[in-house]
Amino acid sequence: MTRLARGFVAALLFVLALPAIAAAAPLTDNDNQWLPSSDGATWTYQWSDDTYAPALTREQYKLDSRTGTAFKLTWTTQDQGNQEGHVAAAGEIDFNRTDSGLVNTSWASTPPPSEFPVLCAQASRCGNSLAGTWFMVIWGTRSPVLQEPLLRGTEWSTTGGADSDVSSQNRLLETEIVKVPAFPDGVAAVKVESDVTQAGALGDPYGSGVRTVWWVHGVGPVRVLFRHTRGETTQSELISTNLAPRPAPDPTNYLPVKSGQTAVFRWTNDEHLKRPSVQRFTAAAVDRGSARIDVASRSGPIKVAGSYLYANRLSGFTGLASSTQVATKVKFPALGPRTQPRSRRRHFNTPYDLMNYGFNPVLPAYPKPGDYWKSEAGSRDFSVYGVEGWSKIRGVQTIRTPAGRFKALLVESRLTQKGFPFGSGKRLMWFAPSKGLVRLDFRHRDGSVSRVERLR
Questions:
Q1: pLDDT of 382-409, one tens digit each?
Q2: Per CATH, the architecture of 262-454 is what?
Q3: What are the strands, taking DSSP E only, across 127-217?
Q4: pTM of the model
C-alpha cells in the first residue's frame, strides 16, 4: 500500500418530552455519537464522479481499532461486487472525539487514479485525494470534521488536505428526512454545508466547491454531495450498515454567538445601583466555537469597556477570561475570596459578570430540564471566585422583558462566598432559544436584589 498522507492535529414551568431527542453522550461512549466507534461497526458506501469515475464504486469501511476516544477505520473495494471501471482502493483513516468535536488525525491509502485532477502544486508525492467517501467528508474539514455541540446556527472554519492547504467555511442547515439505500424509508439527518476552497494546486478548481454532508446520529454520514467549482459532481450514499440511528441531541441554541450579533441590557440593584446601567454587548470575533464579546456602556453611572472570552464545547458554554476598564462612583459591597489579594478579586461591573460568577459552565452542552452541576473545590474557578454552590435547570418559563416575550430556559443557582454576603445568594437566569440571556435576578444575602433585563 502506498501512503497518501499521514497528518496529525494537535410564569408557568413546564417540561416538554420531545421524541427523538437525547442528551450529549460522554466522549467515551462509543455508540451514541455522530460517528460511532461501536464494536464490529461496518459501513458500505457507493460513490461516483460524473467525469472521472462514472462507474459506481462500492467501498466497505469497518472499525479496526480503538483506544479511549481515538479510533481507526479501514476500508477496501475488494470483494464488494464492483463492476469493471470502478476505482480500486484500500486504506485507513484515524479519528479522535474531542471536546470540540470529531477530529481527523491521519490517513493512508492507495493513490487516486491518474486521470483525477492533481490536488497539489506538483504531481509527484501528492498527498491529497477526493477518490473516496471519507476523502470527500474530510476535504478541507479535518479539525474538526464536525464541530460540537451541534446547535442551530453552528458555523465554523477549518482546514484540511495533507498540508492544511484546503480551507472551508461550514454551517449547520436544517434537519431533513433523507432516503438512501441503507434507509429506504427515510431517516432524519442533519445537513452540513461547506464552502471549500483550494488555491495553488494544479487541480484547484476541482478541489474547490460546495459540499453537503447528511449526518445521522448513531450512524455517521449517509450521503455526501460535492459540486466542484468547474462543474463536476461527486456523490456518495450509504448502501448498508450494521448500526441503527439513535435520537439526536436537542439542537436548540440557548446561547447563540454569531459575529456582529449585539445585545443591550439594563442592570439595576435596588440598594446599590438605583439608576440603571445600560450596556451593549457585541460578538466581535467568533470561530470554531470560541468567541470574544465586547462590552461598552450606553448610559448610566457605570462607564465600562472591555471584552469577554468564551468557548462553546461539549463540556458546556464556558467563560475563559475577561478584561474591563471601569470608571464609576457606584460603591458596591466587597467581593472575595480572601485567598485572593484585593487587586485580583472580581467585581460586578456588567451583566456578564453576574452571569459568569461562581463557576463554569454557564450552560451545559445540549441543556435540558433537570441538568445539575456544582462548584468544585481545588478547581480554577474555585481559586478565582471561592464560591461554593450548585446550578440546576428548572424548566422552561414564559417571561417578558422589554425585548419581548420568550419561552426561556430557567437556571437556578445557589452561591456562597464565605464572608461576603454580596457574593452569596440565589441567582435566576433565563435563556431564550436563538436569543441568549434575556433576564437575570440575583438576590444577594446582603438583602439587595440585582436585576438584568434585555432591552434588545
A1: 999 999 999 999 999 999 999 999 999 9
A2: Beta Barrel (2.40)
A3: 146-147, 155-160, 166-180, 183-198, 209-216
A4: 0.90
